[in-house]
Each structure stands twice: as C-alpha cells, then as structure tokens.
Write a structure and sequence with these properties.
Helix 3 crosses helix 4. This protein has a domain of 36 residues. It starts with 8 loop residues before the first helix and ends with a helix. 71% of the residues lie in helices and 0% in strands. It is elongated.
Length: 94
C-alpha cells in the first residue's frame, strides 16, 4: 500500500481532526464511534480486495483501494481516540 503524501486528502483530514491537541467534545466522540462506511462502499472494498487477492487489480483499482485503506486507518484511529476519551470520562464520573 502506498503511504499517503503529506497533502493527500486523508492526511489533510487527519490534521484537521487531530484530537491530540484539543479535547474532543463527548457528543462528537459518540458520533465518531457510530460512523461506518456506507454499504455500497464496503461492497466496493470487498470487490477490490477480492481482485487484489486474485492478482487482477488494475493500477487505477489499486489506487482506489489504497484510498479506502487510508480512510479506514484514519477512521480507526479516530474511533480509538474517541473510545479512549469516553472510557476515561466514564471512569471519572461517579
């Protein structure tokens, strides 16, 4: 998988949404945990993944799959941070 360039869409979005520097509002954290890939996009990821396993992925399809994987990593990171924040908040609340 190609690494995102410093100014790829996912890299820019990651910088915008970076939760390390400011605390994420609890409502935003809860919403972030509910975000999922739409079914049509998940179907496309499954299709591209199957073609990759079969060795029949075109260059354009490979780049498309890389975009999905980049966003998936970003979403997973954001959800992990949101989950940690909510768990921390729950532990602080009597």
């Amino acid at each position: 998988m190609a690494r995102p360039t410093p100014n790829s869409e996912s890299a820019i979005l990651a910088r915008i949404l970076k939760a390390d520097e400011q605390e994420l509002p609890l409502d935003a954290a809860r919403y972030g945990l509910s975000v999922t890939l739409p079914a049509s996009d998940q179907d496309r990821v499954d299709e591209l993944s199957a073609k990759a396993r079969a060795g029949s992925l075109s260059e354009d399809e490979s780049q498309e799959l890389d975009h999905y994987l980049d966003i998936g990593l970003l979403l997973g990171t954001m959800q992990a941070k949101a989950s940690f924040l909510l768990q921390t908040q729950a532990n602080l609340t009597p």
